[in-house]
User: Fold these one by one.
Assistant:
Number 1:
Amino acid sequence: MANFNYKARNDAGGMESGVLEAADRSAALSQISAMGLFAVSVESPSGEGGPAGSLREGKQRKLFQRGPAKPSLQDLANFTRQLANLLNAGMPLTGALNSMTNLESKGIPPEVSRGLFNEVREGKTLSNAMALYPHSFPDMYLNMVKAGETSGSMVEVLKRLADHYERFAEVRSKVTTALVYPLFVMGLGVVLIFIFMSYILPKFMAIFDGMNVNLPTSTRILQGMSDFFAAYWWAVLIFGVVSSVLIKRYFVTPNGKRRLHGWLLTAPLVSRIARPTYFGQFARTLGALMQNGVPVLTALKITENVVQNVILQGAIAMTREGVTDGKTIAEPLGRSGVFPKLMVDLVHIGEQTGDVPAALDNLADTYDNELNVSLRVVTTLIEPILIVVIAGVVGFMLVGVLQAMFKITSSIGKT
């Protein structure tokens, strides 16, 4: 047992201090909590422990040093849903946040929940407390929580937030799942072709070289490719790695990013997935923000940061400038020349009826349905195309080998 000097704040906000005996610092904190106090600092005479209020900062620094990964969309949805359920059950905000530290919330570290509890207990609003953790809670999240605090409908806002991130997570999962199989087939085909050209084909060519036979054209082409791969396979690998790095660096530059994102919106097949994904993301984000009372200009600015396409970001920025000039959303949205006429018309109808968020929500559902259809069509088309391409390459190599073997067999028969 050891003695701990503590300072704590009572329910009235006053400071209390004293000394208590406990087995360790955690036990001391439990005793302070049992007395109905909120610990500010707990220290042993040897200097162990530290300000309880600084516990969050220390954990935060540790997380920053390790480069913490951002929570996924589903992680945010689960955290938000749990918090909404606790508040809906009648728990006060501090009690709900305290319970969140003990609940399993993948992606949101427990120290973040403890930090939120500490900040709210000290008198900060939830949105201001969450603003201290920008790595966990994006701007959209903070603004919607702030809107919920202003309107007094925190539970409803949190439920909408959870629904919003769950839909986003579902869309991303569908796109990822649809692309996994084609990418796997393409990668496996490239690896098999590389192995065949570097190791298997040279063994056949060594046999053919020992025969005094005029090889077919296809076999001579294969022989040249085989010799090159066998001698310079390392150069091929280096070239591939260097090219990948340079291409990646180029597409990070403003000009490269603009070219890539423009290609995503116009390329055959690819645009059938990219366009409904981006447009649905725009409509759902802007609609959710406006529905929860976030001002239009702020909602457009947040949506501009959420949509990960520089072409659309520029169009949203133009729309925001147009709205600043006193125009409706639909007019500058259509003038940007990027958004489809369906979106502009439905937003215009929403402005006439006075319910733009509902129009945007219907648009988001429309683009989600379009995305589902496009994913089925694109994956149905890509799979046979990949199989035909890989089969054509492999078939050419087999034909080259078989033609040489037939030529050698026939020449042996003649002799």
Note: The longest helix spans residues 356-414.
Number 2:
Amino acid sequence: MKYSIRDIILESPSGKGEEWLKRQKSLEWSYEINERLAKDEQLEKIFLKREGKEKDFLDAFLKLGNTKALRNFMETCMHCGICIDKCHMFISTGDINNSPVGRAELVRRIYKDPRVKNVDLSKIYSYYYQCTECRRCAVFCPNGIDQSEITRNVRNVLTSMGIIPEYVVTTLAQVYRVGNNLGLNEKAIASVVNFLEDDLKEETGKELRIPLNSKADFLLIPSSTDLFVNTDTMKGYTKVLNALNKKWTISSRATEAANFGLFASEKYLRDFGNFVVDEAISLGVKTVVWGECGHGWRSASNYVRYELAKNGIELMHIHQFTLKALERGQLKVDKNKNDDLFNYHDPCNYARGGNLVNEPREILKMVVRETVEAKYTKEETFCCGAGGGLLADEKNWNEFRAWAGWPAVYYSWKTGASYMISPCAIDKAQFPYVIDYHKVPLKMKGLMDLVGYALEI
């Protein structure tokens, strides 16, 4: 990897690079910046209790050593260090424990010596919740070690003990309560739908409906932020589905493409995936169409897909669905409506966890005038720096994630593009903040936003 970590930081137009480098006062420092632990009353909302101490962590972690994958990862690391400067967390902090191999060493010593007694749970919690589970390390590791899988295993144990960030718990609780991360109830969703329909009529002069809780052939699963924040993305979905005259619907009981269970434990991932399966069955749909969300698609593609298939229901991503329609000439678009230079950013969990690399690029080329690729793309893409549940809005943490997301924004900025395009709900929340912090001349959009702009209704 031919880049200078120091240069990447110092090239930030924010002028804050020198100051940030000074904060890296030792090889181990960033554990001091961590997310607030959830309180007992918050844990109750997701059916958890805080229980267990160091010995309980030891016992639970050592049981994980019986699994073939974890045993392989623990045994085959050669400490070669190739993964270190591939990690955006190490690039941004310079903390050796915030590198894949460094983080793994915190638990490898337990695996190697089960008699160890001095376990620093606070350090393990801090560093293992700073990993964004992006899997970039696995691409470059000579042995293919996927440190994010170690992270997921460690988090499974920590979560079972009630050692989990407040932000993640709050988000999980919202899904249990109303079926989406933002806590939007049926009345609020219906109100937003009415507003968007009015907005679409004003834009296009046509009645474009967003059916809610209807029997249909297609169930669209948007991110809740598509309804409330990234509304141009939701409009893009709506224009495509209406232009194709599909019998479709969204559901107020499953309006969340994201799946924060991936950031906590397998139990929550499966619970939230099953919410979608149950709703698809209830509404009698033939196909579930997944909206723009990286980690959500990874969870859906690797779990929900098979649960739907048991009931004869197909799973498609909105990009797969849209590309087929474009290739068949069923959608008419005007590239001139997107007359600028666009850089596509691969979300980690599309490129490394969801097998969705080519379709978004093909769509982008069909709906814009000009595209350009960044230096590190596809399976080598940099993480946005907010995955793994690191989107918490806290003063100390915000600066940290501004630098964690800088490598991805840096290489997009270096392409000379005017727009950074990413079809991921977390990217859409993270990148505008990083762009603003570093003062780079980039704008951020989702891919379906551009489809909606170019589509001739």
Note: The chain has three domains: 22-164, 169-327, 335-454.
